[in-house]
Amino acid sequence: MVKRLIIALHIILFFSTIALSQKLSREEYILKYQLLAIREMERSGIPASITMAQACLESADGNSELSRKSNNHFGIKCKAGWKGKKVYYDDDHHNECFRKYRHVEDSYIDHTRFLMENYRYAFLFNYAPTDYKSWAKGLKKAGYATARDYDKKLIKIIETHKLNLLDEKIGGREIARFTQPRLAKEGAEGGFFINPYQTRKVELRNGIRSVVVRNGDTFETIAREFGLEDWEIYKFNDYHVGYKPQPNEIIYIRPKKRRAQKHLPTHIVRQGESLHSISQMYGIRLHSLYRLNRINPGQRIVVGQKLNLRKRKKY
C-alpha cells in the first residue's frame, strides 16, 4: 500500500514537472501570437502593441487557467448579450461569468469586437494606431480593468519588449517577417483568417467605420476580411441577401445610427438619389430615415424634397 502511494506521488510529481516546464515565457507568447495582434490592428486600428500587451497581462502570457482551458486571453466577461459558451471564476466578485472560446484566434477577434462595439471605448479610435500611450491611458479611463496602474503596466510591457515596433508593421514586406501558420481551422467558431495584405482604408462616417467597395468585392469577402458574419454586412447596410455591391460604394462594417451628425440636420434630394443612398451617405439606418420623415416604406421621394436627418418631421 505504501509502495503504491510512493509510486503515485512520483507520477504526480513527474507530470507536475512537465506541466511547469511547458509554461510559456513572455517572449515565447509574443512570438507565438504577434501575427494575430498585427492582423487585428490592420482591420480595426487598435495598436498591435496594445492588443499584445493586454493579452500578455490578462492571460499571464497564456499560462492562466482561463486562457489555457477557455482560450480567453483578454479576461473578457460575459456581459449582456453574450450567447457563446461560459465559464465561472472568482475575480472582482465571487463566481463571475467569463467568455469561453473554441480557439485562441476567436479570443483576439472578440477582443477587437468588444472594443469597437462598446460606446465606452469609442473615443479611443480617435488616437493613431501608433499612439500606444494614449490607448493605454484611455483603456484605464474607460474602465477596462480595475487596477489603478493598468495603463502603466501596459506601457511597461510595450516598452520592455519593444512591442511598439509591431505598430509599424502595417503592411507589405514588413508584415512578412511575422508570417505564421493559420491558427484556426476552416469552419472554426468565429474564426476567420484575415489576410493582412488585403487590408484597405477604414474611414469614419457619422462616427461609424466604413470602407469603399473595390472591384471583385462581395459582402462575403468583406465580412471575412473584418471578422464579421455575412448577414451582419447585409443588415448594417440595409440590403437584402444576395445584393452585389458596386465599386466605389460606401459599405459600413458597424451598425448605422438613428440620426446624422449635429451639423447635418437636413438634406435636399438631388437627381438620382434614393432614401437608401441617402441613408448610406449620412450613416443613418434606413428605417430611421423613414421614421424621421414620416415616410412609408416604398414611398417615393422627389428632387428638391427636404429630408430631416436628426429631428422627426412635424405634421
Helical element count?
A: 12
User: Could you give the order of strands across the largest sheet?
Assistant: 3-4-5
Instruction: Assign the CATH architecture of the largest domain.
Output: Orthogonal Bundle
CATH topology of the largest domain: Lysozyme
Q: What's the topology here?
A:
Elements (H helix, E strand, L loop, with lengths): L1 H20 L4 H19 L3 H12 L5 H6 L14 E5 L6 E5 L3 H14 L14 H11 L7 H11 L12 H4 L26 E3 L2 E5 L6 H7 L4 H7 L13 E3 L13 E3 L6 H8 L3 H7 L13 E3 L7
Antiparallel strand pairs: 1-2, 3-4, 4-5, 6-7
Helix pairs in contact: 2-3, 2-5, 3-7, 6-7, 9-10
Provide an overview of this structure:
- There is one protein chain.
- The protein has 315 residues and is mainly alpha-helical.
- Strand 1 and strand 2 form a beta hairpin.
- Helices cover 40% and strands 9% of the residues.
- About 15% of the residues have low confidence.
- The chain has twelve helices and seven strands.
- Helix 2 crosses helix 5.
- The protein folds into three domains: 125 residues, Lysozyme (Orthogonal Bundle); 53 residues, LysM domain (Membrane-bound Lytic Murein Transglycosylase D, Chain A, Roll), CATH 3.10.350; 43 residues, Membrane-bound Lytic Murein Transglycosylase D, Chain A (Roll), CATH 3.10.350.10.
